[in-house]
# Entry
Amino acid sequence: MTAVRIVDTTLRDGSHAIAHQYRVEQVETIARALDRAGVWAIAVGHGDGLGASSIQYGRPRHPDAELLAAAAGVVERARIAIAILPGIGTKQDLEAARDAGASVARISTVCTEADIGIQHLRLARELGMLPHSHLNTAHLLDPDGLVEQAKVVADAGSEAIFIVDSAGAFLTDDVRRRVAALRAALPDEVAIGMHEHNNLSLAVANSAAAVAEGATLVDTSLAGLGAGAGNCQTEVLVAVLERMGISTGIDLWTLQDVADRIVRAEVMQRPIEIDRLTATMGYASVPASYLLHAIRAGERFGLDPRDLIVELGRRRVVVGQEDAIIGIAAEMADPAAAGR
Amino acid sequence: MSADGRLRVAIVGSGNIGTDLLLKVERSPHLVVAGVAGIDPDSAGLRLAREHGHVVTDRGLAHLLELVDDIDLAFDATSAASHPQHARLLAGRGIRSVDLTPAALGPAVVPPVNLSAHRDEPEINLVTCGAQATIPIVAALSRVADVAYAETVSTVASRSAGPGTRQNIDEFTTATARALEAIGGAREAKAIIILNPADPPIMMRNTIYARIAEPDAAAIETAVADAVAEVAAYVPGYRLKMAPLVADDVVTLMVEVEGAGDNLPPYAGNLDIMTAAAVRVAELQAGVAA
# Structure
């Protein structure tokens, strides 16, 4: 079996879990350790991607370019990766990220809207970055539908296509069928990646299943730090892959040390775990990035965030639509006042 | 101008937008269809225009200009790539044009806010649907407060987002943001667009955030209500979905746009607000609705 490349996303998806408040020193410490441990790439920046500094998604403590430059300044081997959602981030943001040292551009679209990523995939290539695609909120499509969209970005030059389970809603068989369908339909030179959330306690199992079906890239986070119940835990997946006889070239102890001593001890604010809120997100198929927004809206409008999460799922919200939380909360809190 | 004083309007483009414009112009008591130009002989839009008895050509605008010589104004509902050529042809004949493509050659216009400043321009551009839906509100806020920053999130149904938006999504967000500043009066602005594939399709929804120091909630509520009524005068499905919420220095509100359901389905309020704005410009030029 071919080697698996790990893209650690502690410094990007993990940003959701701390309302995008990373400090430069934390980014340097974590990036240095990940590089030493041997991960292939380190994703850095606002949880909602480049250019997402906003009222809608939250203001970060530091602009993306500053954090990217900090990470790029301490690594020797690892690539620095960014995420960008067309419709939120722009070409200028991508250029600034490249200038700050990023060399992998993950163009993220809702899985049904792959064609809106073409413009940015081409630009990433022109800028000399590796163009990768994230098809997010992937539970919205069946395997055939996902294949159709994957072909759109493969044709546009995407070198890797990630199935992004933004809601942590996939069961293991859902992942197996989708990876197998993509692998069968796409040219060999297009790699398949998996990005999981642990809302149903399946992130590691689903990622390992994706690898067994032919995925060669996996997004992971130290101590699972990420949106909702977190991502596939880097140091656990690496151990599981070793047990599966798959090489990652990664030093496990170094990962465990930074996960426990830095991420858990100094970065994590709210425990990354499956509680009534995060489990409800997986159950109701709501993007994990909505967690802190739903908690805040619940407090602001005096609602149980679970009721909000279930209603969001019923309305089929997608990644990026965080404003729907306030709209729905205002309606639920005072149906008569909404639209007055 | 026709004998009965109605403005004679040509429609360039026979796709979804062109056809929706056709139905709106037909319905307007102040406008009359001077002709429809397309390039696809099999298009449903040209067929419909022919059935309705209009002068029609499938050989483009140049041919329409040979067939019809008394055109007061033209709507360009083709593409950003074709628009410059159309603009030259129209300008050569002294015909004013309203551009619904993202070409952005002429000044950006949002009818209730700045049309009067551009009445004499040979050509105007309608920016984006996001701009048409949000700028009237931001401009209203700017009239009663200093808007340090405006941020808009427009969520539209996937099925209503055409190839122009999809291939140039960066231009959409950038053009909307710049117009929020230049026309809406925000000192700084950011625009976001989200495509949602839910079925049945969702209506166009716009969330508007504005950062305003010491916001006066009552003045804001009145200004927003007035702006909504002004837009609803020409986009009947434009409504306040969430009244302004004030928290510290951030005002948040939402407007929804339901389309009139002419040629486009009612959920496509994002397209309807563009065609309705174009017709509004023509009617104001006809001098009747002002």
